[in-house]
Amino acid sequence: MDTPNYRKLIVWQKTHQNALQIIKLTSHCDRKYLRIINQCVSAATSIGANIAEGNSSATQREKKRYFQIARNSSYEFDNWLQIFKDSDSIVSNKDNLKEIEQLNIEVIKLLSRLISGLDS
Questions:
Q1: pTM > 0.90: yes or no
Q2: CA angle 53, 11, 105 (to 5 degrees)
Q3: Which domains does the chain have, with CATH numbers?
């Protein structure tokens, strides 16, 4: 079986890397914040899933819709990252948060460009 095309997309690769990083980071979080942690991981993993699903869409309109959903999830993920950064309780080791945040901003920009390209 050939490698699925979505895996070749830089935006998916960056999103995948970020999802793995946030999963690792949150595995050491205080479990009393499990709902927030789950929301964050869900948003992070949703981005890549929607890119993969959208990339296999039959129409440009459908592809655009999935990429927009992925971008919306990227903004949601950014919100959770800000909560993690600003909270003194949820994440004890904040070393990777800035890197994760920067990578997510790149993902938002890439998705915005992909979406704009689908309008032409």
A1: yes
A2: 120
A3: 5-119 (1.20.1440.60)
